[in-house]
Amino acid sequence: MISSQNRIFITTWNIYSWKYLKEVFELEKYFPVQIVVPAFSKEHLKQLIFNRYEEGEIIFNNGGESEEEPISYITEYPIELSALGRKISIPILKINTHYLKTYLLNEKKGKEKEEKEKTAEHRVFERIHLESKGNPGVALRIWKLALDYPHIKPDDVGNFLYDIELEQEEAFVLNLILSYQDLKKSDIVDIIGSVLKTDEVLFQLLNQELVFEDENDSFRVRPEALSSVIAYLEKLRLVW
Amino acid sequence: MVDGSSVNTTREQLLETIISIETQTLVNIILAFFVAYIFARIITALLLKLSEKMSRSGRIKVKMVIPAVKFGIYIVAFYYFLTELLNIFGPELFLLTGLIGAAVGFGLKDLFADFVGGVIITFEKPYQVGDKISIGNYYGEVTDIGLRATKLVTPDDNTVTAPNSLIFNEAIASGNYGASEMMVVIDLYIASESDVKAAMKILRETVVTSKYVYISRTSPVILLHKSLPFYTRLRVKAYVNDLRDEFEFESDIHTRAWTELEKNGIRAPQLHILNIPQIGEEPELRTTSRRKDRSNGRHR
């Protein structure tokens, strides 16, 4: 266990703040061992989300009642292009292997309804995994946005694309919010040095739906906008 | 060996070719160069637009290819002009080149030098579009490299057109040489009795937290301290993320550093050593004291 060792440890919530501190203060000299928490797999995300519900509580694709499962479907594959500073989606045709296994090979006759639901469930978590890139916070947010309790459909799992256009100061504040995880307005005023300018900056960030104000009056990056924000800030080389 | 009769024949053929140019061919020649010019302008505009949409390093890379593309378009137009419109090949082409050479030697040598300079700039790349360079007495961002001249925009927004032949006579300094980041040297002068360590710490924190700074392993922030007889100079060598923000970066550092330095009791050099009144000191008081001094002198 890390906590049982008599050594100094630091934790960082994201890789970007660590990279900044590493370049500026050469922190890796003093903390030579870094443990990077790997991204969640699709199965881990499924487990994380299902832990919040009872078994059978969530119904995928209307429980296989009305909609036919397709043999093939198009899934949007998100890619962050830091050279252009935006996230794009590439449509990829995928074969519905779950459906083919069940219905063409007649493996589980009489259980079509359950299998239809299983197929829809597979597609929902495939979309969430692709969109969140294994980030549990982002995955939970995408799940919540797509969920029409107790129903959820694969087609409702969003494909979040943002066309970000910011001034230098706005991009800088967005970078700070990303690196600090959350920032209060008073902190931003201290950094910028002007209440009026802070209001202008926050208006732009809120208006473009890149940040939100949480219950503690702190501004945070919207989880669903995270990958677009990172691509944009990478383009400006504010994060690397 | 080429004997005299064959040279004469070729010369006659060339003259015949040039004399036999019809009005239609002349129109075609003008049209060909006009199309090449328009095409080069369109391609340049498109590439510039694309480059502005890209990341800072991508912007410079895209702009780098613009002079080569323009040069290529004009070469193709010139080749088309010689071969398709004038039907000049082989020995005729050789002779025409000789004629052009003679014309260049007599009257157009400066233009030719500019053209050769343009070719060298395109391929050797002493600077590129997007670079900040010093050429002659001018400093600014290169916005266009043409066949004859290079255009740069100075910090006070003057567009300077410098002939390409300047590269043969003048030393050229490129601040970034193809990179989007550029080193900026910023000097701050503080009073000699100041706490230099505290001042250096404040200055470093100011630089690394600037919204304009670019820090990487190859682009570190360097602080230098030099004690001079009447003041102490603090020098920062840091990279600005986008070379276009060079002066904003400097201004940002000065503004924020001085706010913090003053909070910590670190002042600018006092000019009393040179008998220059300090800011805020009442001029009347000083005048009065001087008068008093004078009157005291008289009484003495």
Would you give an account of this structure?
The complex is a heterodimer of chains A (about 240) and B (about 300). Chain A has helices at about 15-25, 25-30, 40-50, 95-105, 110-130, 135-145, 170-180, 185-190, 195-205, 225-235; strands spanning about 60, 70-80, 85-95, 150, 185, 210-215, 220. By secondary structure, chain A is an alpha+beta fold. Chain A has 3 domains: about 1-35, no CATH class; about 40-155, no CATH class; about 170-235, Arc Repressor Mutant, subunit A (Orthogonal Bundle), CATH 1.10.10.10. In chain A, strands 5-7-6 form a 3-stranded antiparallel sheet. A two-stranded parallel sheet of chain A has the order 1-4. In chain A, a hairpin with a 4-residue loop joins β6 (about 210-215) and β7. Chain B folds into 3 domains: about 5-125, no CATH class; about 130-175, SH3 type barrels; about 180-275, Alpha-Beta Plaits, CATH 3.30.70. Chain B is about 55% helix and about 15% strand. Chain B contains 9 helices and 9 strands. Chain B has helices spanning about 5-20, 25-55, 55-85, 90-105, 110-125, 165-170, 195-210, 245-265, 285-300, and strands spanning about 130-135, 140-145, 150-155, 160-165, 175, 180-190, 215, 220-225, 230-240. In chain B, the strands form 2 sheets. Chain B has a 5-stranded antiparallel sheet. In chain B, strands 6, 7, 8 and 9 form a 4-stranded antiparallel sheet that branches. Residues about 285-300 of chain B have low confidence and may be disordered. Chains A and B meet through α1 and α7 of A and α3 of B.
Which features would summarize this protein structure in a list?
heterodimer; A: 240 residues; alpha+beta; 3-stranded antiparallel β-sheet; two-stranded parallel sheet; 10 helices; B: 300 residues; SH3 type barrels; Alpha-Beta Plaits; 4-stranded antiparallel β-sheet; 9 helices; disordered C terminus
